[in-house]
Write a structure and sequence with these properties.
single chain, alpha/beta, Rossmann fold, Arc Repressor Mutant, subunit A, Sec63 N-terminal domain-like fold, 8 domains, seven-stranded parallel sheet, six-stranded parallel sheet, 30 strands, globular, helicase activity, hydrolase activity, nucleotide-binding, C2_domain_sf, helicase
C-alpha cells in the first residue's frame, strides 16, 4: 500500500466504485481485527489462522465478490478454501517449523497447490504464477515445476502409535501379523520403489529384494520402543505382542507414544495440583507451541489474574506458557492477542482427553489419591470451573454471579445449605427473595446415599452388598437421560483401590427403589481399621458420597478345609454289583477311582453320604449305586432326585428312561414347571425327578400325602447351589424331609452330590452324614486332569470386549485342540451367533474355511435341509454349531448329535448347556464371565460354581489323557479367578432373606404351631449350622448362646 501510494497508483486497487461498497463497509466496520478495517479502504485483505473465524469468513466472501483486489494470506489458505485468482504470488519459500525449531523450505506439494489457485475457470483463459525466492533455490523450484515429484509416505514417523492401536484392537498379535499389516500400507509400496528415502541402502535392497527383513526390523524396533514404554509386552522369543492397560488407554484416548513416555517419567503416586498441570503441559501434543516475544506482557497479566495455581517456569518458558493457557481455559478468562487466542484454542481441544487418559491410568494402577485428584480436574476442564469454587457454580446459567460470590465469601458448603431453610439462606446472602431459588438448586444437585453390608466369605475375601439411593430432584435439562457414577472401594491408609466399577443411574432408577450391587473385595492381615466405599459422579464436581466399612467387630470364619485323600485302590470291576441286570446298565468295565472308594458305603450300607468331587468325575453313577441299593433292600420305597435346574432334570429323564425304565422296568415321573403328573402316577412311581420348587409345593402338606412319607432315598444333585438364588428352597425341602423322617420314625437316606467344598463338614452335619459317609475330594482330583489358562482382556464395555476375545478364542482352538472337539461358552444367544460368525471369518482368512467340518457334502446337505434356524444352517456349513434356549428341540438335539459324533468340531453355546447336557469336549473356552441381568439392568458375574461346571466339561474320560480350559475374563477380575478356581468357596445359607415365606408355609401346613416349634424347626436348617461358624456373614457379633437365642427369636 505504501509503495502504491508513493507511485500514485492507489486507485488501481480501490473498490469504491463497487455497487455494494456502502453496505459492505458497514459489515467491515464490525470486524474484530483493526487491520482488516484499515486495509479494506485500499482494496487489500489479509487472511491467517490467528484471526477470528468471523473475520476470516468475511475476507473470503469479499475476495470472492471482487471487493478486494489483493488478498495477502498464509499458505494454509491454498489447501483449505477454494478461492481462485488471476495471479498468484509466492513471496519467499521458507516457513518457520515449530517442530524443527527453525526455517524449512516450502514443500513442492504446497507450491503446486498454491499455483493451482491461479486462473479462474469461468473468467480467465490463462493464469499467472510468480515465485519469489533466493537465488540458490531458483534452479531447485524450476526443476520441481517442470518435472513431476512423487508423493512419499510419512507413516514411519507414527508407526509406533499405529502399531499400538492395532495391538489394542486385537488385529495384530505377533510380528508375523504386524509385517502382513505393514505390507498393506503405502509406505511398503514406496519402500520397494524408492528405498533410499527410507534409509535403506542399495546393499540391503540387493540382499533382500522383497523387503521382508527391513519390514520386520521396522516392526521389531517399534515393538521394542512400545515395550520399553510399557504400552505392550513384546516377547522376543515367540514374537508375540500382548496389549497392556497403558497401551489400550493410549490408543483409546489417542495419546502419542512420546506423551506416554513423558507420563511414565513424571506421573507419581502423590502429586500437587500445579505438578499435574505442569505434567500435562509437557505432553507432546503441545510441542508445536512456541514462546513469542510480543506475548510476554499479556501472559504475565494472565498469570497474575487468572491462574490460581503456581506456574512452573513462568511465562518465558514454553511449558510455563502452556500451564498458563490451561489455567486460563478453566478460569474462562479472555485473551486479547490473536496468536495467544489460537494457541489457547488448540490446547483446549486436547486437554479433556489427556486429563481423562491420566485419570484412567491412575485408576488402573489403583492409586486412590491421584485418581480422585485427576477425576476432579477432568470435571474442572469439562465444566470450566475450578474444584475449589462453590459447587453451585455448575448452575451458573440460572444462579446470578452475585449470589455465588456471596456463598463463596460466607464459605457455606452444600451440607449446610441442605439443612437451612429458604429464609435463612435468603438472610445469609442478603437477597431474601433469592433464598428459595438457591434451595431449589440445592435439591437439583446430584447426591446419592450409600449403605452397605459386609459379609466375610473366607478369611481373605469379603462380599459387599451395596445399596445406592438417589436423593435429588431429576431435571432433564441438568441431568440428561442418565448420570454415571464411579463406585470405588479404597483403603486410604495404604492409598490403594481394591475395586472400582461404573454405575449408570437412569431417570427411571432415580425415582424408583434403591439399586443393589454386589461385589467381592480382598482383605489382608493385619486388618486396616476401615475401608471407604465412595460413589463419585463422573460429571459433577463435589458430587460424591462416602460410606465407611469398619473392621472392628468383624469375625472372620476359621479356615477348616477337610479334604478326603484319594486312596490308591485297584478299580472295582462291574461284577462287584453282583447282579447281571445291573451290570448291563453300564458300558464301561471298571468303576473310576472316586466311585471305587465310595462304592461300599453307597451300595452296601444305609449311611447318608455327601460326595464332593469336581464336575466330570462320575458323581451321577455314584448316586445310581445308592438307588440300586434301595431297589435291592426296599423295593416299595421311592427315590426322589432333586435337581436345581430344569436342564439337569431333562438330561436325567432322557438318560434313565433308556436304562432304568426300559432295562429294570421301573416307573419314573418328572415334576417341573412344564410337567405336573397326576396322583396315580405319583403313587405308582419308583423314581420321582423334580425341581426344588415343585417338591417344596408337594411336601408342604406331607401329612395328607402318603407318597411323601414313602420316600426312602433322597438324592440332592449340585447341593452347593444352596448359596445361590434358589438355595433357600433347596434348604427348606431338605430340612423338612429330615424333620418328617424324625417325626415318622421312617429313616430317609440322603445322598448329596456337589463340587469340591470348603466347608463340607457343616453341610455333612446338616444332612446327618457321619464321617464314614463324607467324601470331599480336592478340585484337582479328576479322572481326566485339567489344564487351565486364564487370560485377561481390558475394555470397559461388554460388547467390544467380547469382540476382542474372538481372535484369542480362535488362536486357542488352533493351539490346544486343532482337531478335537471344542465347547465355547458365551452369555447370550446374540453372542453365540456373533462368536460363530467371527470364527468362520478367522478360519477363512487362514484359508481353512471348513477346518471344523468333518462330513461329506451330500450328508451335510441332507442335515441342513432339516434345520429350521437360519443362523444355525449357515454356521453348520463351516462345522460350527449353535446351542441356546431359542432353538427348537429338534434343532437342538440335531446339534448335540452332530457334536457328540464328531461331525462338527466347535459348539458355541450359552451357559445352561454346562448344567443340562452332558457333552464333554477336549477344550472348553469360557468367553467372558459376566451375563446381563435383566432385573438390575447391568452385567453381573457368573457364580464360581457355574464356571467350575463349565470347566468340568473339558476332558472326555474315554478319549483324552487331559482336558484344557481357557477362561477369557475382564482384566480386573483375572487375579480373583486365579485365586478362587482352586481354592474352594464355602457354601453359605441364603434362607434368612426368605424365611418369612417358608415359616408361613409351615404354619399353614400345621408343622409349626408356636414360637418354640418355630425355633426347633430352625435348628434343622443349614442356616443354623452356619450361624455359629461365620457369624459376621449373617450380622451376628459373637456366637455366645444368649446372642444366638436372641437372634433366632427375633
Amino acid at each position: 500500500i505504501d509503495l502504491a501510494a508513493k507511485a500514485g497508483e492507489v486507485e488501481l486497487f480501490s473498490n469504491a466504485d463497487h455497487p455494494q461498497y456502502g453496505l459492505i463497509k458497514k459489515d467491515v466496520s464490525k470486524a474484530k481485527s483493526r487491520e482488516v478495517i484499515e486495509f479494506f479502504d485500499s482494496g487489500f485483505g489479509i487472511h491467517n489462522a490467528g484471526m477470528m473465524r468471523s473475520d476470516r469468513n468475511l475476507m473470503e466472501r469479499l475476495f470472492a465478490d471482487g471487493l478486494l483486489k489483493v488478498l495477502v494470506c498464509t499458505a494454509t489458505l491454498a489447501w483449505g478454501v477454494n478461492l481462485p485468482a488471476h495471479t498468484v504470488v509466492i513471496k519467499g519459500t521458507q516457513l518457520y517449523d515449530a517442530k524443527a525449531g527453525g526455517w524449512r523450505d516450502l514443500g513442492m506439494l504446497d507450491v503446486m497447490q498454491i499455483f493451482g489457485r491461479a486462473g479462474r475457470p469461468q473468467f480467465d483463459k490463462s493464469g499467472e504464477g510468480i515465485i519469489i525466492t533466493t537465488h540458490d533455490k531458483l534452479a531447485y523450484y524450476l526443476r520441481l515445476l517442470t518435472s513431476q515429484l512423487p508423493i512419499e509416505s510419512q507413516f514411519l514417523g507414527s508407526l509406533k502409535d499405529n502399531l499400538n492401536a492395532e495391538v489394542a484392537l486385537g488385529t495384530v498379535t505377533n510380528v508375523r501379523e504386524a509385517c502382513a499389516w505393514l505390507g498393506y500400507t503405502y509406505l511398503f509400496r514406496r519402500m520397494k520403489t524408492n528405498p533410499l528415502v527410507y534409509g535403506i541402502t542399495w546393499e540391503e535392497v540387493i540382499g533382500d529384494p522383497s523387503m521382508g527383513a527391513k519390514q520386520r526390523s521396522f516392526i521389531i524396533d517399534a515393538a521394542r520402543s512400545l515395550d520399553k514404554a510399557k504400552m505392550m509386552r513384546y516377547d522376543e522369543k515367540s514374537g508375540n505382542f500382548y496389549c497392556t492397560e497403558l497401551g489400550r488407554i493410549a490408543s483409546h484416548f489417542y495419546l502419542q507414544y512420546s506423551s506416554v513416555e513423558t507420563y511414565n517419567e513424571m506421573l507419581r503416586r502423590h502429586m500437587s495440583e500445579s505438578e499435574v498441570i505442569n505434567m500435562v503441559a509437557h505432553s507432546s501434543e503441545f510441542e508445536n507451541i512456541v514462546v513469542r516475544e510480543e506475548e510476554q506482557d499479556e501472559l504475565e497479566t494472565l498469570a497474575r489474574k487468572a491462574c490460581p495455581l503456581e506456574v512452573k517456569g513462568g511465562p518465558t518458558d514454553k511449558h510455563g506458557k502452556i500451564s498458563i493457557l490451561i489455567q486460563v481455559f478453566i478460569s474462562r478468562a479472555s485473551v486479547d492477542s490473536s496468536s495467544l487466542h489460537s494457541d489457547a484454542q488448540y490446547i483446549s481441544q486436547s486437554l479433556g482427553r489427556i486429563m481423562r487418559a491420566l485419570f484412567e491410568i491412575c485408576l488402573r494402577r489403583g492409586w486412590s489419591e491421584m485418581t480422585s485428584l485427576l477425576l476432579e480436574y477432568c470435571k474442572a476442564v469439562d465444566r470450566k470451573i475450578w474444584p475449589h469454587l462453590h459447587p453451585l457454580r455448575q448452575f451458573d446459567r440460572d444462579i446470578s454471579p452475585e449470589i455465588l460470590w456471596k456463598l463463596e465469601e460466607r464459605n457455606v458448603d452444600l451440607d449446610r445449605l441442605y439443612e437451612m431453610e429458604e429464609n435463612d439462606i435468603g438472610a445469609l446472602i442478603r437477597f431474601s427473595h433469592q433464598g428459595r431459588l438457591v434451595k431449589q438448586y440445592v435439591g437439583y444437585f446430584p447426591h446419592v446415599n450409600l449403605s452397605a453390608s459386609v459379609s466375610p466369605i473366607t478369611r481373605t475375601v469379603l462380599k459387599v452388598d451395596l445399596l445406592i439411593t438417589p436423593e435429588f430432584v431429576w431435571k432433564d435439562r441438568h441431568h440428561g437421560m442418565s448420570q454415571r457414577w464411579l463406585i470405588i472401594v479404597e483403603d486410604s491408609e495404604n492409598d490403594t483401590i481394591y475395586h472400582s466399577e461404573l454405575f449408570t443411574l437412569t431417570k427411571k432408577m432415580a425415582r424408583g427403589t434403591p439399586t443393589k450391587m454386589s461385589f467381592n473385595i480382598p482383605i489382608f492381615e493385619p486388618h486396616p481399621p476401615q475401608y471407604y466405599i465412595r460413589a463419585v459422579s463422573d460429571s459433577w464436581l463435589h458430587a460424591e458420597s462416602i460410606f465407611t466399612v469398619s473392621f472392628h467387630n468383624l469375625t472372620l470364619p476359621q479356615t477348616q478345609i477337610t479334604h478326603t485323600e484319594l486312596l490308591d485302590l485297584k478299580p472295582l470291576p462291574l461284577s462287584a454289583l453282583g447282579n447281571k441286570a445291573y451290570e448291563d446298565l453300564y458300558r464301561f468295565t471298571h468303576f473310576n477311582p472316586i466311585q471305587t472308594q465310595a462304592f461300599h458305603v453307597l451300595y452296601h450300607t444305609e449311611t447318608n453320604v455327601l460326595l464332593g468331587a469336581p464336575t466330570g468325575s462320575g458323581k451321577t453313577i455314584s448316586a445310581e449305586l445308592a438307588m440300586l441299593h434301595l431297589f435291592n433292600t426296599q423295593p416299595d420305597m421311592k427315590v426322589v432326585y432333586i435337581a436345581p435346574l430344569k436342564a439337569i432334570v431333562r438330561e436325567r429323564m432322557n438318560d434313565w428312561r433308556h436304562r432304568l425304565v426300559t432295562q429294570l422296568g421301573k416307573k419314573m415321573v418328572e415334576m417341573t414347571g412344564d410337567f405336573t403328573p397326576d396322583m396315580v402316577a405319583l403313587l405308582s412311581a419308583d423314581i420321582i425327578i423334580s425341581t426344588p420348587e415343585k417338591w417344596d409345593g408337594i411336601s408342604r402338606s406331607w401329612h395328607s400325602r402318603s407318597y411323601v412319607m414313602k420316600v426312602g432315598l433322597m438324592i440332592l444333585d449340585e447341593i452347593h447351589l444352596l448359596g445361590a438364588d434358589r438355595g433357600p428352597i433347596l434348604e427348606v425341602i431338605v430340612s423338612r424331609m429330615r424333620y418328617i423322617s424324625s417325626q415318622t420314625e421312617r429313616s430317609i437316606r440322603f445322598v448329596g452330590l456337589s463340587t469340591a467344598l470348603a466347608n463340607a463338614r457343616d453341610l455333612a452335619d446338616w444332612l446327618g452324614v457321619r464321617d464314614d459317609g463324607l467324601f470331599n475330594f480336592k478340585p484337582s482330583v479328576r479322572p481326566v486332569p485339567l489344564e487351565v489358562h486364564i487370560q485377561g482382556y481390558p475394555g470397559k464395555f461388554y460388547c467390544p470386549r467380547m469382540n476382542s476375545m474372538n481372535k484369542p478364542a480362535y488362536a486357542a482352538i488352533c493351539t490346544h485342540s486343532p482337531d478335537k472337539p471344542v465347547l465355547i461358552f458365551v452369555s447370550s444367544r446374540r453372542q453365540t451367533r456373533l462368536t460363530a460368525l467371527d470364527l468362520i471369518q478367522l478360519a477363512a482368512s487362514d484359508e481353512k474355511p471348513t477346518q471344523f467340518l468333518s462330513m461329506a457334502d451330500n450328508s451335510l446337505d441332507m442335515i441342513l435341509s432339516q434345520v429350521t434356524d437360519s443362523n444355525l444352517r449357515h454356521t453348520l456349513q463351516f462345522g460350527i454349531g449353535l446351542h441356546h434356549a431359542g432353538l427348537n428341540d429338534r434343532d437342538r438335539s440335531l446339534v448335540e448329535e452332530l457334536f457328540s459324533n464328531n461331525k462338527i468340531q466347535v459348539l458355541v453355546c450359552t451357559s445352561t448347556l454346562a448344567w443340562g447336557v452332558n457333552l464333554p469336549a477336549h477344550l472348553v473356552i469360557i468367553k467372558g464371565t459376566e451375563y446381563y441381568d435383566g432385573k438390575t439392568k447391568r452385567y453381573v458375574d457368573y457364580v464360581i460354581t457355574d464356571i467350575l461346571q463349565m470347566m468340568g466339561r473339558a476332558g472326555r474320560p474315554q478319549y483324552d489323557q487331559h482336558g484344557k480350559a481357557v477362561i477369557l475374563v475382564h482384566e480386573p477380575k483375572k487375579s480373583f479367578y486365579k485365586k478362587f478356581l482352586y481354592e474352594p468357596f464355602p457354601v453359605e445359607s441364603n434362607l434368612r432373606e426368605h424365611l418369612h415365606d417358608h415359616i408361613n408355609a409351615e404354619i399353614v401346613s400345621s408343622t409349626i404351631g408356636n414360637k418354640e416349634e418355630a425355633i426347633i424347626y430352625l435348628t434343622w436348617t443349614y442356616l443354623y449350622r452356619r450361624l455359629v461358624v461365620n457369624p459376621s456373614y449373617y450380622g451376628l457379633e459373637d456366637t455366645e448362646t444368649y446372642t444366638l437365642n436372641a437372634y433366632l427369636s427375633r
